[in-house]
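User: I'm putting together a teaching handout on how multi-component assemblies are represented. Below are the sequence lines for each component of a complex, exactly as they appear in our records. Could you produce the 3D structure of the whole assembly as structure tokens, so the students can see both representations side by side? Please keep the chain order the same as the input.
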Amino acid sequence: MLLQRIDHVGYAVENLEEAIRYHQRLYGAEVVHRERMEPDGVAEALLAIGDSFIQLLEPTRDDSPVARFLERNGGPGVHHVGYGVADVSATLTRLKEQGVRVVDDHPRPGSRGCTVAFLHPKGAMGVLVELVEDPSLADAATAPG
Ligand code: CO
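Assistant: Of course. Below is the structure of the complete assembly, with chains in the same order as your input.
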């Protein structure tokens, strides 16, 4: 199996602070990471669920993909699913060889130091899929002790 885990579920939200408070109130969620990713036009907050995350994404500009999703969807919703893989580059190459349509032709930097690549929903069962390689997990796997 190329996919090792569900790394995160990405939610598109209109208001990051409200979305954080909602998850805190309902589930006692804790924010473990915040980051602003200018190339993607989003501000994110990660809420930990065991070894996985809910990734809340608020657009930082009108032309960001998440802003367009909110518009199309008529409000917040599940934007993408992030699958943890050992090697994004190798996984992407293998999927492309099988004719899978991709958003990112090459792996690129994601949040929290991960390397990521998105697959196009057309050809991925209608779901926007993000492949995520987390270097901290690779280090943990190979570190002595
Ligand atoms: Co993501």
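A couple of points students might notice: Residues 8, 10, 55, 80, 82, 130 surround cobalt (II) ion (CB under 6 Å). The chain has one domain: 5-142.
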